[in-house]
Design brief:
Helix content: under 10%
Shape: globular
Structural class: mainly beta
Strand content: 35-45%
CATH superfamily: YVTN repeat-like/Quinoprotein amine dehydrogenase
Number of helices: 3
Number of strands: 38
CATH topology: Methylamine Dehydrogenase, Chain H
Radius of gyration: 21 Å
Distance between the termini: 20 Å
Length: 485
């Protein structure tokens, strides 16, 4: 079975304000008085495979031995949704080719918009876009306050929508273009949620969730057939998740600066603790494999996970990339880079972006961020000269058509979007638009990429790295964008 990995948003500070300058411009245009809200969480999306998850035994002696508090048991009878709207386990077909959607479009993009204009003021919606014609074609009404990040099911039948207003998750039937089932409420805000390749199991990192007798932070395990939390796995400060293609491992990056937690899904519901905490001892600051790790990427065969260490950008010492042998849990020596908060694998090439604490020599503000190109076969940086990109905290990276790598950041001095040409010329383009980048979506079969920046939806041509002539005006605020076909 072909599996997919999540895309998550990356942020290490408090949630950004929901209303941007662009949103305020839209409010003035509509002549509306709007209460500006806060609390949209950021994330990259992705998916992994796992089995249907059962509960921990509440009195498991093995769990007591490992000093793991029991996972709370949820009454499924209360939470089962009467409307059975999800596909059966293991389905991997894309129904959009055979099941007409409401707008009857061949290629659609969803855009979360918490401030859509209505006759009564504003309302949260998902704007539906014809991604072949770059036209607004409808909207999905939401009850979820402050909708932000989305995660599309691998078979593209449904989409999860996180609402920062009430820390809730809604499910959209992509064909019906409507909310189905009940809303799932989390114990706190999240920056990372994924759907497994079985289209049934989900995982959500909740860094502030209360855990009795331990530091806050959990990974919630979801059964999406009945929209219920079926297990809660304590991980201090759990913030970001990375999953293997085969679903056998889940990496959890939390608040502990020198370690990562590995969850083995097959052990959830057994008497064995599913968590393995990696914290190598006896290493010096130059050889320790973990220094504020924030992200991980798996090789195509899932034998290796490349751990991105944020280092000084997150209060540590050294930014690096460490290759972790998944079957033995043995990390290799860290490869030093200028900065590392987000990455993407393309074959054997690993692209890693971040911002050093101070502007590097040779860089000119605001282009103080760096991009490193790594050959994973030799674990060596291949770019002889530094590649300078925007500053800020980089948390998004997508490969568009024509080998154009789109890199998004937040909290920048000016613009937060960088476009790197991965072809031999290696040119970097820094568009003039300003504001945080909150969503990036390449449009398949086309030479364009949709970007949510400062509350606006921008359409860039990958042949020129410039805005195309035809743009879409989102009335309200564009937060995240995903293809659903």
């Amino acid at each position: 079975m072909k599996l997919f990995a999540e895309v998550e948003l990356r942020t290490v500070s408090s949630p950004m304000p929901l209303v941007s300058g662009a949103a305020r411009r839209h409010e003035r245009r509509a002549g509306l008085a709007i209460a500006h809200c806060h609390g949209v969480a950021e994330s990259n999306d992705g998916n992994f495979c796992s089995v249907i998850i059962h509960l921990f035994a509440s009195n498991s002696p093995s769990l007591m031995l490992f000093r793991v508090p029991s996972l709370r048991r949820i009454s499924l009878g209360v939470l089962i949704v009467a409307n059975a709207f999800l596909v059966s386990c293991g389905s991997s077909t894309n129904p959009s080719s055979s099941t007409p959607n409401t707008t009857r479009l061949k290629l659609r993009a969803f855009v979360t918009n918490p401030l859509a204009s209505t006759s009564f003021g504003t309302a949260p919606v998902i704007d539906v876009i014809d991604a072949l014609k770059d036209e607004l074609s409808g909207a999905v009404s939401l009850s979820t306050a402050q909708p932000g990040m989305m995660a599309v099911f691998p078979n593209k039948r449904f989409t999860l929508v996180y609402g920062g207003g009430g820390n809730s998750i809604s499910i959209i039937d992509n064909a019906q273009e409507a909310v189905v089932g009940s809303t799932l409420t989390l114990p706190g805000p999240t920056e990372s949620m994924v759907v497994s390749a079985d289209n049934v199991t989900g995982y959500v990192a909740v860094p502030t969730a209360t855990v009795a007798g331990q530091d806050p932070g959990v990974v919630e395990v979801l059964n999406l057939t009945n929209n219920a939390i079926t297990a809660t796995i304590p991980v201090p400060g759990a913030r970001f998740l990375a999953v293997s293609h085969n679903g056998n491992r889940v990496l959890v990056f939390g608040s502990q600066p020198d370690r990562i937690t590995i969850i083995t899904p097959s052990l959830i519901g057994t008497s064995t603790d599913p968590r393995t905490v990696l914290n190598p001892s006896g290493c010096s600051s130059s050889t320790c494999p973990f220094d504020h790790p924030v992200w991980g990427l798996f090789s195509s065969d899932d034998n290796t996970a490349y751990i991105l260490n944020c280092g000084p950008e997150c209060g540590g010492t050294t930014a690096s990339v460490a290759a972790l042998e998944v079957n033995t849990n043995l990390p290799g020596s860290p490869l030093l880079v200028n900065a590392a908060t987000i990455g993407m694998l393309s074959g054997s090439t690993l692209y890693v972006a971040g911002s050093p604490p101070s502007c590097p020599a040779g860089a000119t503000a605001p282009a103080c961020g760096t991009l490193s190109v790594i050959d994973t076969a030799s674990m060596a940086v291949t770019n002889p000269n530094p590649i300078f990109i925007t500053d800020g905290y980089h948390n998004r990276m997508e490969m568009g058509a024509d080998g154009q790598l789109f890199i998004g950041a937040r909290a920048c001095s000016n613009g937060c979007l960088s476009i790197f040409d991965t072809n031999p010329n290696g040119k970097v383009t820094l568009p003039s638009d300003t504001g945080d980048v909150t969503g990036i979506q390449p449009i398949t079969t086309r030479h364009v990429v949709y970007v949510c920046e400062d509350g606006e939806l921008r359409i860039y041509e990958t042949t020129t790295d410039k805005l195309q002539a035809n743009q879409i005006d989102i009335i309200g605020q564009a937060v995240d964008v995903k293809l659903v076909d």
